[in-house]
Amino acid sequence: MADDDDRLIQEVLAELGRDANPSHIAEQVRRLDRGLPAEDEFIAVCSWLGETRLIHKLDQHQAPSKSREDYQVPDLLAMYENSGPVLIEVKSKKTPTLSFKPDYLGRLQAYADVLQMPLLIAWKYHGIWTLFEARHLTKAKKNFNIRYEAAIKESLLGILAGDVAYKIAPGAGVHLRFKKEKLLASEETEDGLNEQWQMRVDKVGFTSAGGTPADALDNDVTTLFTTWDLSEHQVHSETHTEMQFVAGEDDGMMFGHMALVHLLNWPLQDGEQINWRHAIRRESVVSNMTNFTQALQRALEQKVVRIIINQQPLSWPEFVPR
Predict the structure, then answer these.
(1) How far apart are CA 169 and CA 201, in angstroms?
(2) Cβ atoms within 10 A of the Cβ of 183, count?
(3) Which terms does the record give in the GO molecular function aspect (predicted)?
């Protein structure tokens, strides 16, 4: 990371000049260190899902300046295991319609045509990524638009990057048992008796589908529990308190790329945010799971995951072999 920090400082000095106010230089370095969250997050997603051979940003400082009238360099270039190189423009919008002005889209497409590469759009909408061909944008009154429901139907994130949807089996979860060692305080309230105990964990266990005890799960399989919003239940006795964190019957599905956010958020302190720029520069995007795809397959075999869905687009792209 030291070389990367040096590059950041060099970029800022080149932009602001060596005589710039030190506080302005420091603030610009901090801003660049935060990166471009949407682009960095999408790079992290593709890198982590396991089917990406190469993905990187494209320098958009075009020269000569007149070239901007005809061409717009997209945000990323990527090569997946099942495709040649593709160009990707990244957007993060919270409205259900993504819109491109005709001249902007035209310049993006002109650049893609010159390089003879497919032009794709990566769109993050309320935490869910889609990746689709630009040809699915349709002309409205003025702009070229796509609705979110159309984008997700045409998403290539599964067949290119390896994304899947999955569901933790109902009853599967983590169980912690605490032994009561010393009563520290006791107070009568309108709601009953409040007690404060000194306790220690004397048992950690796991269950698979239906609450079946399963203490021989793979480490990556147990880590999958941190990607799920498990329901909490407590069981109290005179000697112990047991906390049960289990998946419910009515829980929905989870995309693999959303699981990455949970894994990265797990070790963070309250109020701390994921630094996606740092994540994509580490040797491994996450340190607590070695291979997400293999973990899901093992979890299916060990009955911790109930179902895995491999999504295909409504319209199969010409540049991806079947």
Answers:
(1) 26
(2) 10
(3) crossover junction DNA endonuclease activity; nucleic acid binding
d(CA 226, CA 289): 11
Neighbours of 63 (CB within 10 A): 7
Answer yes or no: is pLDDT of 146 > 50.
yes
List of E strands, the chain:
52-57, 76-80, 85-92, 97-100, 119-125, 128-133, 138-139, 144-147, 165-168, 173-189, 192-207, 231-236, 240-246, 254-255, 305-309
Give the whole-angstrom CA distance, residue 256 versus residue 253. Answer: 10
Rounded CA separation 288/224 (Å): 10
Q: What is the mean pLDDT of residues 77-93?
A: 96
Separation in Å, CA 199 to CA 78, 175, 185: 52, 16, 13
Query: In this structure, are residues 97 and 146 in contact, taking their beta carbons and an 8 Å threshold?
Result: yes
pTM over 0.70: yes
Secondary structure of residue 306 in the 3-state scheme? strand
Q: What are 232-258's pLDDT values in tens digits?
A: 999 999 999 999 999 999 999 999 999
Mean pLDDT of all residues in 284-313: 93
31 or 206, which is more confident? 206
Structural domains of the chain, ranges and CATH numbers in brackets: 35-163 (3.40.1350.10), 167-309 (no CATH)
Per-residue model confidence as pLDDT tens digits over 116-128: 999 999 999 999 9
